[in-house]
Specification:
Two copies of one chain form a homodimer. By secondary structure, the first copy, chain A, is of the alpha+beta class. Chain A has 14 helices and 15 strands. The first copy, chain A, has a single domain, classed as DD-peptidase/beta-lactamase superfamily (Beta-lactamase, 3-Layer(aba) Sandwich). A seven-stranded antiparallel β-sheet of chain A has the order 5-4-15-14-13-12-11, sandwiched between helices. The model of chain A is unreliable at about 1-30 (pLDDT under 50). The interface of A and B includes residues 76, 83 and 85 of A.
């Protein structure tokens, strides 16, 4: 379960009959609820003015907002919490060219079980809210299910981290940020924390030894403290803990050495986001808009969840439309170019694609990701296609396959947070779609 | 002070040396703070990551967020509270044609005092955040001060009401809403309230006898209960009152007869917004997007503040960019047309322009608005130019002058809420600008 999460969506997992494993290494085999019976329409969430009390979803819901409420909340985050806008810029949207194909019948074998099924079948089984496949820059497949609409932003969860890592790589390339420098060169506020003797590079690649657990089955795990501090779950009446991301980050203590192993911890992304603000003098929302979002021909603004001080969650708070996420993925695949413009230097893309150290990654024991690595907050497969990915809990994905000239973006509301539970029906499906597209 | 207000912006008025009159009828003569010394830059609000504790603005600020903090908050509402998006639609923005003129030197005499000053001088004196003048559909003047940017939405306060009233007039024109029907035909939930024997028309024109005070100098006034119920100010630790706009509206009791006099009360707009949702089956944000906002060639999405149930504030929660507000005003001036499309039927515009009953309006005693009336939640001057206006506290305005073919939109953060304090330097200035433009 080493993935960003927002606790309130998960508090009820147990009551949904979902077993949540505390370790990503083992693929959970939960008894999953019926996707069709738990759509927003079927459940009747938020219908009417006002909705019936038992169909009302509020931030401070005492029973939490876990699945199946998440099928509504993931597409309505800004109606629940404060947010910061990521402006799409002054230009016109640039339409994505279309070359639609029927990919529903593409068949593949699930990881682990070996069950054979079709791409179309896998989408419902994986609680997909929306999926879009680009091939050679053209939309070959685009579907929305349930509450997601083409124009409506969906929470990207930890896909957010890859935006933060990309911006850090960009500023490093421009000489504005030194990855080899100590974190405290930029953030002296962290001198008494786990980050006191860490470098920026270690943060970018998540090889930090910090006492911070993302095992959200454990109510005492630090992820709960993180989410509460950032206002992502209610703080409760007598809360006396940190009241912002910045305050929380200053409480983190060391656990083990740095630079030994990949250890996926959301707080590293928050530290990196803080460094970006300090270096650029801009908020994360401004920086993302100015350097990336306003150059994509995006249809919609994006936005971040913010804490009570207006500070964006760089660990999991980004929300975008599916199409705009595809535009970003296509710019990455296209070596940093979009609409005739070099948005990111090719060297930044190459650095991400080359990946990190698979040996350090292997120590984290991700069963569904053998031979992968982590670099600049991207997941790099090192497979024959050179695929790399941004990944967020509950199934959020950017999957870039350079050899197949393919980008898949997917938003979802899977009842299980960990991608280890979702990969078996998605990674081999993406590979099969890639091979189909390559055959044409 | 008969205007929508968000209490947290006002709690500190006293400590700013501003006298707040409880009655709009008398022009307050407060000792006003220096506009230049209280800009966001001069005050240092929200600079740095994180801002210094005394420069930090949060929703739950124990000292409130009154002026001068409002010079920041009015342009950053969505970073403080949950919001609902008003989509600009799938099309490209349609640029406003430009024909810039120097209007700074236009001279006029202030209402009441007779002081002579220039239009340019009046803008700082009125704590303007941004102002845009259209003449014959072209931008002749556009200025931003302080924190407002062309692309950044600003809170429209009670200008919101005019959008709600326009939508109601539209649905009435289409036969979907009967203004002569009882409110309870649409909202049986209000059968035990002040609205039990009221008609929709009385709500649209604010001639409702309801016990509800907007005298925000009085901490026991119902406006505080309204704002707390809607989550626009903190509810406080031991709050046990209504927790949504809908719950609050069901508590309202009668005070005097209906249909006798204009009585400006924000709750009427909330009732009308509720009726619109019930009749259309859409949220207010969806309805505004579908029927108006997506047809203007808007540059930006707009948004509403929402309560904990996701219900928009139809009384004062709309936020728009200044240019998009101008596009809306121009569509109104242009008899409902925008970009070659009839967005609103001409009959709807005519009904608004014709106005309400000046005799009923006169009973409310607005000293700065002699001979005016109120219709469909618009303020109608009945002057020689046939000017009509949308008005929100602290200086928010759409001012449409059909004879001069002029639209002025203005966002501001005046320390005093009541437009009675702001009109003396704005209404005669607008008239002088109109006369200048007519002379060409």
């Amino acid at each position: 379960m080493r993935a960003f999460f927002t606790g309130r969506y998960l508090a009820l997992l147990a009551s949904c009959g979902v077993m949540v494993s505390a370790h990503a290494q083992q693929t959970p085999q939960p008894s999953l609820p019926d996707p069709a019976a738990t759509t927003v329409q079927a459940m009747g969430w938020m219908q009417g003015f006002p909705p019936a009390p038992d169909k009302l979803i509020t931030f401070d819901n005492p029973v939490g907002n876990a699945y199946p409420r998440s099928r509504w909340t993931f597409s309505h985050i800004r109606e629940l919490v404060p947010t910061a806008n990521v402006w799409r810029g002054p230009g016109n949207p640039v339409a994505l060219p279309q070359a639609l194909r029927d990919l529903d019948g593409v068949r593949f074998k699930a990881l682990g079980s070996g069950e054979e099924l079709s791409f179309g079948e896998s989408l419902a089984r994986n609680y997909t809210d929306g999926i879009l496949v680009l091939h050679q820059g053209k939309v070959v497949y685009e579907k929305y299910f349930g509450e997601l609409k083409p124009e409506r932003p969906h929470i990207a969860m930890s896909v957010t981290k890859s935006f933060v890592g990309t911006l850090a790589a960009l500023l490093a390339h421009e000489g504005k940020l030194d990855p080899e420098a100590a974190v405290t060169r930029y953030l002296p506020e962290l001198k008494d924390t786990a980050y006191a003797d860490a470098t920026v590079r270690q943060v970018m690649d998540m090889t930090i030894g910090v006492r911070y657990s993302e095992a959200y089955a454990d109510p005492k795990a630090e992820i709960w403290d993180y989410a509460r501090a950032g206002g992502m779950i209610p703080q409760g009446r007598d809360y006396a803990g940190p009241k912002s991301f910045y305050e929380f980050l200053q409480t983190l203590q060391k656990e083990g050495p740095h630079d030994q192993a990949f250890a996926y911890k959301t707080v590293n992304s928050e530290v990196l986001a803080w460094i970006l603000r300090r270096v650029s003098g801009q908020s994360l929302a401004q920086l993302l808009s100015e350097r990336i979002w306003s150059h994509l021909g995006a249809e919609q603004d994006a936005f971040f969840m913010v804490d009570r001080t207006g500070t964006e969650s760089g660990g999991g708070g980004l929300n975008t439309s599916l199409r705009d996420l595809a535009r970003f993925g296509e710019m990455m695949r296209n070596n940093g170019q979009a609409n005739g413009q070099q948005v990111l230097p090719r060297a930044v893309i190459d650095d991400i694609r080359t990946g990190g150290d698979p040996a350090k990654f292997a120590k984290a024991g991700y069963a569904t990701l053998p031979g992968w690595s982590y670099r600049n907050m991207w997941w790099v497969s090192h497979n024959a296609h050179g695929a790399y990915s941004a990944r967020g809990i509950h199934g959020q994905t950017i999957y870039i396959d350079p050899k197949a000239e393919m980008v898949i973006v997917r938003y979802a509301a899977h009842p299980v947070a960990a991608n280890a539970a979702i990969d078996p029906l998605s990674l081999p499906a993406y590979q099969a779609v890639a091979e189909t597209l390559m055959r044409k």
